[in-house]
Amino acid sequence: MRTIEIDEEVYDELWMHAKEGTPFASENDVLRSILSLATKPKGMAEDERRQPRSRPKSPLSGEKTAHSPRANFSQACIDVVNAVRGLQLRRCGRILYGYEKITGAVCRVANEAHDDEGIYYFFTLHQSDWNKLRPYSKRYVVLGCGSGAQTLQIPLETFEPWIAPRLDIYVRRKGNRFLLHRKALEFRDEKGIQVTDDLLKAAKGHG
């Protein structure tokens, strides 16, 4: 048995077909989607099962940390955006939410993490994230920091100087302030961008 990983754009296409109950145009469409999967060498999945699960490393310090469940509160963040901004964003894919072709947002969420400097939230954005937002006139990146109660709705323009096929970022919380940083292999952006004004004040019951 082989382990396969699905490209995000293929995942979204399959997700939309399943959600809307619409068939693919032909069997070739299905085959093209499956052929775009990235595969691991045969036998690797079994070898991985034999190995004890190692502790994950902190994305900032590289030190091993305790396991934490995967963050899963994207809808709570979008509910906050809709309530605070008076929008009608609806799910259009695994991470994409939109209203017609007017307003679009990709939503990424992260659990709270800690290092010597305090609390931070780590996110990875991909080229497919930027591609998903192209049809919309108003484009945002929504970051859920620990829960829907800490939702940042950041205009895409903030990220434009950093846009890359893979972009690792982290949000540092310092008291009531939130700073957006870029992380690269060779450096960490220590100064950061002030994004406290992008924090949405959720009404009671959200998040």
What would your notes on this structure say?
This protein has 2 domains: 47 residues, no CATH class; 127 residues, no CATH class. It is globular, with a radius of gyration of 19 Å. The strands form 3 sheets. Strands 3-4-5-8-9-13 form a 6-stranded mixed sheet, sandwiched between helices. The chain has a 5-stranded antiparallel sheet with strand order 6-7-10-11-12. The protein has a two-stranded antiparallel ribbon with strand order 1-2. It is built from 5 helices and 13 strands. It starts with a strand and ends in a 7-residue tail after the last strand. About 9% of the residues have low confidence. With 207 residues, the chain is an alpha+beta fold.
Write the layout of secondary structure elements.
Blueprint: E1 4-5, H1 8-20, H2 27-35, E2 38-39, H3 44-50, H4 74-85, E3 90-91, E4 96-99, E5 103-110, E6 113-115, E7 118-126, H5 127-133, E8 138-145, E9 151-155, E10 166-174, E11 177-183, E12 193-194, E13 199-200
Parallel strand pairs: 5-8
Antiparallel strand pairs: 1-2, 3-4, 4-5, 6-7, 7-10, 8-9, 9-13, 10-11, 11-12
Overview features:
alpha+beta, 207 residues, 6-stranded mixed beta sheet, 5-stranded antiparallel beta sheet
Give a short summary of the structure.
The protein is built from 5 helices and 13 strands. By secondary structure, the chain is α+β, with helices and mostly antiparallel strands.
What is the strand tally? Answer: 13
Overall pLDDT: 77
General shape: globular
Query: Number of helical runs?
Result: 5
Q: Give Rg in angstroms.
A: 19 Å
Report on the biggest sheet. 6 strands, mixed
CA distance, first residue to last residue: 40 Å
Strand order of the largest sheet: 3-4-5-8-9-13
Structural class: alpha+beta
Low-confidence stretches: 37-49, 52-56
Run of helices and strands: EHHEHHEEEEEHEEEEEE
Percentage beta strand: 25-35%
How many structural domains in the coordinates? 2
The quaternary organization reads as: single chain
Helix content: 10-25%
